[in-house]
Amino acid sequence: MSEEFINDGPVLEGEITKRPLQFFWLVDCSGSMRGKKIATLNQAIREAVPEILRALEAHPEVQVMMRAIAFSSSASWHVGPEAVKLEDFTWPPLHADGYTATASAIELLLEELDIDKMNRRGFPPVCVLLSDGYCTEPEEQYERAIRKLDHAPWGKKAVRLVIAIGDGSEYDEQALLRFTNHPEVGVLKANTPGKLVEYIKWASVTASVSSSQSKTFYNDDEVEGGEGEGARNVILASAPQSIQIEDANEVF
Amino acid sequence: MSDRTGPASASVRLPAHTWFDVRRGSSHVRTGLPCQDAAAVWRGRLPQGQVTILVVADGHGDSKYDLSEHGARLAVQTALHCLRSFCRRFNTSSSLLYDAIRHDFAHRLTRQWRQAVLRHYSENFPQDVELLNRPSINLYRRYGTTLLFSLAFDDCLIGGQIGDGDMTVTHTGGDVGRPIPAAERLIANETHSLISADSIRLWRFCRWTLHEPCLICLSTDGLSNGMASDESFGDFLRSLVRNIEQYSFAETVKVVPGFLDRVSAGGSGDDVSLALFWQADPRRKKKK
Amino acid sequence: MLLIGDTVQGLLGSRHYRIIDRLGEGGQGAVFLADDGRGEVAVKWYHRQNAVEQQREMIARLIRMGPPGGEAGRRFVWPLDVVTKKGDLSFGYVMPAVNLKSYAELGQVWARLRPTPGMRQRCRISWQLAQAYRQLHLAGYCYRDISMGNFLFDPKSGEVLIIDNDNIGINQQSGSRILGTMEFMAPEVITGRQVPSTSTDLYSLAVLLFYFWIWHHPMHGMLEYNVRVWDIPAKKRIYGEMPVFIFDPRDGSNRLPADPEYQTPLRFWDACPKSIRDLFIRSFTDGIRNPDRRVTEGEWVHAFRQLENQIARCPHDRAENFWQPGMKQLQCWHCHRRFDAPPRFVISSSSGLKHVLVLPETKLRRSELEPFCSEESMDEVVAEVIQNPNNPNVWGLRNLTGESWQFMPADGSEPREVVSGRAVPISAGHEVKIGYQTNLRIEV
Ligand SMILES: [Zn+2]
Q1: Using omega within 30 degrees of 0 as the cis cutoff, is the peptide bond preceding C291 cis?
Q2: Which range of residues forms the domain containing residue C246?
């Protein structure tokens, strides 16, 4: 701004910045994640960060802002609530212990998706939920949180993906499915460490890139009087098709 | 009249106190995409007196809308034509003109734009007989664009908008008026467009009394999206007015293209179009 | 020219108003938010060319005479004071400030800036609008400028406000200034054969309701579509000299064109209940040439109040569907699946037969049980559907009238008294005698 006094001739002002893309990790660190699962998860997120950075080199006008919510017996900010620029982001390792407060995690997320807290010009946010078990909070609380997420303006617009960790008998697929708004992707089932790494990378990279791509054109054919169901904002490339190899002796 | 979609060319002579430019976005340069914005300025005598028309359009880009650079250019041309004929036909009062624009402009413009699109398509793809005989939304979609215009008379402005983009009136005191307020319900990179279903009902119109001097400014969203906040966008507008007063309109607009390029490179990455009309007030100057 | 920070002087009681903010601008003037020292008010300031002496006199007279009475009269945002500014040839007037956060214009709903009201709200908005004009006309006024721009509604609650009341005149006598938006004018006003009156208001009201339900002008069909030069003579022809309704059952010359931009009205017309379609047809066929055949405000009120009680939600997708007397099943307009009609209260009173669908949220208002109750009490809830606290499977209609009902069970057993606060169980064939003249039967 001091330029104005040095320069001779007109000088224009106004701060220029990239548009933000808010990225939220919602990570289950309940007791059942203990051991190999949490170690793989920590490693996978660490590996995903440079991949997102690389993928977004083609979109330098996007500023990805990272945050993470960890939930076990309760939910709290693992990184945040102040968002960290992707290029400055490092993943502090998580330790597993306690129950599975998924609903509280979503409630915490909702606080930050508030219409007054988000930048109106921002790209659709990305929310990736990682969990290996049943939500231990009352079903109504989980349902209520999901409903609020479905109705919040930014919750609707967000790209919400779920990665289920471990054996299908240990988590509630139907409940997790309610979190995602991309039924064509469904619940990504990471039943091996390899798949977990692959899915975390795929979900975070694809969602970020898709969200930062060009506009969407409001073209709703919604139910009369409805508040815009199906106003989904982002089209995702399809999830990685993993080759079916029975590696059943891998303990998870 | 002058309009263009490409970079500024020195041969275009603009009427006094109007200016526009269309800058190809940094991401378009990087990926080899054409500039998909278009803009135009027209100033002349109509039954209402001296009228200045500013129009900007933002073609959608993206592979689904591969002809949107033409869609934007045709929208700008059609809008200019349509607005001038509305001025001639509804010339008894600005209230009558405003009523006519509010009620009839959108569907008259949409039809003319579609005809222009069809002409363009038949000239460039004459072999596509099937689509030309039964033009469908799939054809028009490829030309998808937003559109934003303002008609300025001595003492008032009539404006209209479909999709994003900003119309502002900045006064010498520094206050920035927004004749058409931002659409709060459209967030996260979502916009309306001439190809939206039921597009004629998505238009918004305004009438705004001008107390001069003021700067009327129309821009595509590549500009405001590259600014840190509404406040920063306001800072830019206020600095334009301050410089015009301190130096001159002509001196000030010389530095605008460079600034727009910086906004694209360091911010939005998008094409940036800006059309300006500096409404200095002769009456008020006499009083002083 | 009025600017933020200016002060304007009132003519009545010489009050001062400080201009705080600009709220918007229309064809006639700009509207500002102002502070009169006691609270917020709105000030409309005329564009110079509209600031004529006749207008000032008209507003002064409206202030003197006051708004129409009753509940509906309060929906008019009435002028309170005339204001001027030193050295300015224009003038303005003061009115109560409206909370623009909750009220919307139809155009804002079209542009998706505000939520689309649901069917129940649409009914409520429609009858409130008609009721407000009824009250205005009863007070001897005519509005003269009914249009989309001066009608505000709350899409959530269904409340209605009418603004820009500065053009209201005394029926049959005030000045002959032709006002208003041609789209909404009665044909005889456009052609200059008549000046605006309550009967031309009725035509404008029908156009406004048509816009509200069908999102389109009733005369914008092929005749309008084929006009190449759209100018004042063309508009006079379409709206005034040879108006033909797009859905005229006998004259097909102005049908909607096959253009995709004209498909929305067709979709909404199909979704519109027959009782309302019939009123529109009468308004825009017989009602064009014969003002005595126009649909009265009372007819609109009656029709929309009926409909408000006849909306059933599809169990599959919650889409709102209109039930019509005689229907055992409904076919959802959205998912096209069929579902059973809910039970009904069939209410017979001195004003005829009424049907109210029995839904968990159903409430009966006084006007439904006592057709000739006062306007103040008509909206009062006098009965509501509740669940039996001891057995949630049993539903009942609780008496809130303050007086006892007589309940006659379907099996013919002894009539029982239902004191105020207690509920009649809802099952097929039960009847309830309410007051002297009203009988309620439960139909399944
Ligand atoms: Zn249905």
Answers
A1: no
A2: 106-304
